[in-house]
Amino acid sequence: MTTKARAHPRKAGMLASIAAAALIGLAPMAASSADAVKLNFWDMIWGPPEYIDAAKELVGEFNKQHPEIQVEYRSVPWNNWYQTFVTAISSGTAPDISTGAGYQAVQLYDQGAIRPIDDVIEELKADGELDDFLPNTVDTLRYDDHYVALPWGIDIRVWFYRKDLLEQAGVKVPTTWEELRAAAKATTKDGKYGIVASGDTGGSHFLYNAILNNGGGMFTADRKLDLKSDRNMEAFEALAAMVADGSVSPASTGYNSDDRRAAFNRGQAAFTLDGPGLIAQAGAEAKNIGVLPPLAGPHGDKATIFWVNNIMVYEQTKHPDEVKTFLKWWSKNQLPLWTKGNTGQLPTRKSIAADKAIKDDVARAYVLNNYVPIGKTTATNAAGIFPALNDVEGEGAMQSFAQELWQGKPVGPIVDTAETRLKSILKE
Amino acid sequence: MTVQPRLAGETGSWRASARSWYASGDALPFLLLAPSIVLMLAVIAYPMLTGFMYGFSTGTLLKPGKFVGLDNYLRLLQSPDFLHALWFSLLFAVFNVIGCYVLGLALALLMNQDVPFRGFFRVALLLPWIVPSIVSIVSWRWMMADQHALFNQIIGAFGGSPIYFLSDQNWAIAAVIVIKIWRSFPFMMLSLLAALQGIDRSLYEAAALDGASRWNQLRFVTMPQLRNISIVLCLLMTIWTVNDFDTPWLLTQGGPANATENLVLLAYRYTFGRNDVGLGSAVSFITLIILMVLVVVMLRRQRER
Fold this sequence. Notes:
The structure holds 2 protein chains of 2 kinds. By secondary structure, chain A is an alpha/beta fold. Chain A has 19 helices and 14 strands. In chain A, strands 1, 2, 3, 4, 7, 12, 13 and 14 form an 8-stranded mixed beta sheet that branches. A 4-stranded mixed beta sheet of chain A has the order 9-10-8-11. In chain A, strand 1, helix 3 (about 50-65) and strand 2 (about 70-75) form a beta-alpha-beta unit. In chain A, helix 9 packs across helix 10, helix 9 packs across helix 18 (about 395-405) and helix 18 packs antiparallel against helix 19. Chain A starts with a helix and ends with a helix. Helix content of chain B is about 75%, strand content about 0%. Chain B has 14 helices and 2 strands. Chain B is mostly helical. Chain B is flat, with a radius of gyration of 27 Å. The longest helix of chain B is centred in the first third of the chain and has 32 residues, at about 80-110. The interface between A and B is medium-sized, with 40 and 28 residues.
């Protein structure tokens, strides 16, 4: 080695100069990178593969604008999401900030893992930015006198119909539950059914939609279970009547939401209940699918189930101020998640909802204008969301209820079974 | 002054005995086993002990609750969900063990003969075991999901009405069992084939000289020779079936109306759906106890014979 170095003194000298220059040149960059606060941001997968690319790009943009804060993006799949977060929190490796489904923040807050963002809400209010959020969104995430998360996206269930099947049956687009029942009956023929539902979590959404649409709700004002209220029972009976008519596909019990969507897109049923992204994902069949106007229940009520998905800050973060900076920036600059990421969520900010890309999507714009204002959570009629809602939706009691309803079993006994199970979950 | 020499002496004697133990060679097996034992304690014993303790408390994975003694176990014994899951686990295990054993044995006997394309069939019959569960079970779902699926096309071709296999409790139970048998028989077949090939041919020659028919050769030569491996295989299959999560979850998610929910699915639902770790742990430990009792009883009976 020594011999070689001696043999090329000029080359060795040149290399040393380059190395020294590089060290001097890189020094400020290395120091800056080392000094930057590192944040971990876990984001659920809210759309097709391009969503992740768009979100990563957006994080990159933040990092560029804020060299003193460097955010690391991690995409989290929905499978076993609860285990993923719980394991991370209990092992002390929780992210600084994450997105999550409707009741994740309130559930984790109750277990001491979430940092309230009352200060962020105050600042947004002072800046006048809070008015940019759609009504019915920010306050949905208030629990125990604290704001536990900031809304970013809305998931909602709306009724879709097949234009071709209604046309073939000579049926006009229904606007009430009564008309829906008649239309479903009229389109049930030739191996096709009026309604296709499913037996998974998506199946339980039919139940939530029905009771809320009829002015009912799962709870009383003091968060006690109220499953057997008159309005709820009337709604369940209305669904059961459609099953008794033979209008609901008998495969519904065994279908999961993907099967149900596929059957609807193939034109095997005239109506289904789904999220606002259904038409965008229907490919060539999109032209045959329309959104029903919000249906009026027997008493004239109009409502549907919705979830305000959110972004939350974790107690384990060591950099609350930097997290706050990122949270506010992300909330304000997330338009590319729709324009590039094609997320199926609806925006919670009026400024994003007003963007041309959103407005040009006729179905999405229709849902935003007509369904979101009448959206209600599973917590209805309780005062705000609460932690047990995650267990109520996740445990499967309402799922089993839906499965048995699609099988045509009498409503009374299956409501009793569901009530017993739900009371056990709620420890009533 | 008096203490220090005594301590030094004790340390010296401890070191001396350790050295002599090491020199004798007796320490080597323990040293070789130590890494595995430490690993097993960390990844099996510790979680199991923690889970066992959870069974006596309330709370969630993040927020420990209070000690409730045997309350979780008593609640389970009165729970219709638990009793149903116990019954279904039993049904699932019995039918699967019998089904995959009979099918595996029949195919092993066939593959032990000099049949054409034997090599091809041996590989082809292993496919259900090799294919990832998500692929095979989703394929089965497609074949039985609704009136347009393959099975109903076949039924329709013979003039029958469609059967909604996944929408009816009884059909769903049958479907879960059949698919589990389909996924399990290759292992039985492969193990029994290996055992068949190890049977001394002279036993068959002697039986043939005594005028034994093929049936009697199977009954009095083959089956007794397969007895030990059959017991082990059936034990293993029982454990794997009771612990099977993939088949009922991917096919029916335990539905319709919890008809195909076994003990493992119930433990999962209680722990992660209901967020009740105590109840979920109690289900897991009851499952473990049932399996341990079964294993001990069967191994004892085998030893007695």
